Amino acid sequence: MNSLTGLSGLLREIWVTFDGAAFYILLGIVVAGLIQTFVDSEQLARRLGKPGLRSVLLAALFGIPLPLCSCGVIPTAISLRKNGASKGAVLSFLISTPESGLNSIAMSYAMLDPLLTIFRPISALLTAVVAGVAENIFGQKEAAAPPPSGVCPRCHTLGPLSHVQARLGPRLLEGMKYAFVDLLGDLAGWLAIGIIVGGMISYWTPPNFAEHFLGSDFKAMLVMLAVGIPLYICASASTPVAAALIAKGMSPGVALVFLLAGPATNLAGILAVGKFLGKRSAVIYLLSIAVCAVLLGLALNGIYAVWHINIQTVVGHAHDMLPPAVSAAASVILLLSMIYALWKPKIKSVLV
Fold this sequence. Notes:
By secondary structure, this protein is an all-alpha fold.
């Protein structure tokens, strides 16, 4: 009986975590589909070829809303590089994109608090710009590459732009197909893992876990760097884990280090940067993320201290503003969409 009670309590905690985030995940996915429909990557590629602050800043700003993980962003970044983008711009894009994303920003609002929700993409932007500028200063010098003749805004590769001129209806349909099939298919597995792990932490971890087991904020930040840098976890999946750890006593600054380092890096991404941009660029990439994550984490803790905000009392309350019927409907829609996105390739292979 105790085991059944424990299992039901765990499942209830996982569902509460999922239910609180579902509406905002759906919102982020829909907006991602709209971006996929309307963003013109041809104009973007033309502005990333000249080394300098402007191209670095533009690449960082372009990457902030895109819902790509640290492995998913690599092919896009390599394509930008081959099509003429400077190393500094590519490095900036490689960092800002996986550290943020409209879907993860929406989840941050639902599961964290407004201040951390705003500070997270700002931190991603600053880290990306620092890395890009450092690459321009300390990286191997390069001449500006000629702009590409045309970049497909849907697949981010060179090719004909015929599908751009399609009517609005088919383009929107294509964008939503990308969002709910391709994008959600890439995210669903990791999103499920993140929500399950977040629920398990909420259910099993004792209060003040971070304070008792991780020590001081600076020491805990180093631990989060050691865990986050080699780990493969997307920005969306990292959010419920961070929310659960904050609820158990972790400071917002330590959580920010995990939210920046975890999604931005993994072993595959580090090797890819070293191969396509060079070993010096890979070192700049890692040092920029590590140093900026710790400094921004310390700054964030200082802001909470100055404003006397106790994040444990406000974390995860955004979903309370939604009517229960809306939350329930969003949860059902998202759950069915995730199941379809995950099983569609298997169903297709069976039918074929």
